């Protein structure tokens, strides 16, 4: 019988290529048919290994969920960027490779990011999701997120609605 280690840990520069590949796969899966094709490709291509390497080197909070020796997902997070929302922290991104979705790994990654934020004194948090990304909005609702704001974001010629979910404990 073999055992596979599943862990959430801070990303290392050696993870940059795997995080970029995870970003690519997760974004294609999540946003195909929602974000216009050319714009989606542009957004994916700007986040290659060099971008992630730089973010990790500069001290951005990026955690990876590893399944054995494979990066299955990542989260990046920090201080809340929306001054109009009275929350301390924000999870900017939380993505899993499609084959690792629906297995509880997203919950583990979310809990680890939230715990890290709380340990840094950022006790309340917010996360944004595109309204049309039903798996994401359902995921955040199931985690106890409360919808607190709506906004929109332009992707090329298309404006898409997004919602903010918050946790206060």
TrEMBL record:
InterPro entries: Acyl_CoA_acyltransferase, Bact_Acetyltransf, GNAT_dom. It holds the Pfam family Acetyltransf_1. GO terms for cellular component: ribosome. Keywords: Acyltransferase, Ribonucleoprotein, Ribosomal protein, Transferase. One of its GO terms (molecular function) is acyltransferase activity, transferring groups other than amino-acyl groups. Residues 6-169 form the N-acetyltransferase domain. This is Ribosomal protein S18 acetylase RimI-like enzyme.
């Amino acid at each position: 019988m073999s055992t596979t280690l599943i862990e959430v840990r801070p990303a290392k520069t050696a993870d940059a290529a795997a995080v970029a590949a995870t970003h690519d796969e997760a974004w294609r899966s999540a946003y195909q048919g929602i974000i216009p094709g050319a714009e989606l490709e542009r957004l994916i291509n700007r986040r290659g290994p060099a971008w992630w390497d730089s973010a990790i080197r500069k001290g951005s909070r990026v955690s990876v969920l590893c399944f054995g020796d494979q990066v299955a997902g990542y989260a990046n997070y920090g201080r809340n960027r929306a001054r109009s929302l009275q929350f301390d922290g924000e999870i900017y991104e939380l993505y899993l490779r499609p084959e690792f979705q629906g297995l509880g790994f997203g919950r583990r990654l979310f809990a680890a990011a939230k715990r890290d934020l709380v340990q840094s004194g950022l006790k309340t948090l917010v996360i944004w999701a595109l309204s049309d990304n039903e798996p994401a909005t359902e995921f955040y609702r199931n985690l106890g997120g409360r919808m607190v704001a709506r906004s929109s974001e332009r992707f090329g010629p298309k404006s898409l609605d997004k919602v903010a979910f918050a946790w206060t404990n």
